[in-house]
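The protein record now logged underneath.
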Amino acid sequence: MSLMSRRHLMFAATGVAAMAVAPRIVFAQAAPAPAPAAAPTGPFTLPPLAYPTNAFEPHIDAKTMEIHHGKHHAAYVTNLNNVAKTNPRLGTAKIEDVLGNLNALDDSIKFTVRNNLGGHANHTMFWEIMGPGGGGKPEGDLLAAIDKDLGGMEKFQNDFNAAGGRQFGSGWVFVTVAKDGKLAIETRPNQDNPIMDGKRALMGNDVWEHAYYLQYQNRRPDYLKAWWNTVNWKKVAERYAAARTGTLGV
């Protein structure tokens, strides 16, 4: 064998050995993302947010807003539409009429409707009364009512925060409004709504952990204080005016 042939053979053998010990690079194709599960169609719909999910940072983070609205509230809507498939009258009645007369429902659906329709009503109100550039204080008739019935803004906010902090487990802290416009601070467990007691929620804050835990963990009082920076007092004032004329829904 010539010197050149021996060199070719040696280089070829060296190349084979190197390939044998070198790590293999595998170019795997990414698995396609699973298609999102289609929400059942029905009479109940998830109201879209009127602002981006990061609108309230640093007070409420975008991920919390995404999960709270797109998962938790959406689940209440899905559950209601499932019930409405076999109880079509549920989808044609006014929400406030159903919540105000839960005992008229069949026992087989009463618990589900209480939780999910209450959750739907509570969250619909919740998204409405918040907005970018929130905070400050109201004006006009609403401020006058707060001064008269709740002892002024500072006392009102402190009492509201304290009530929300005392709510054991999951629930809501509300400002309820009577037909004569009188305000009161009240709490409710779970997804109960003041409509169930013949009252109306002027405004309210969600103290379920899903509303704040990603950012605040077990520091609910810090969340309650920060939340005031998201309140859209113009919307709250509109709700107050509607309550005084008897036209406030959920």
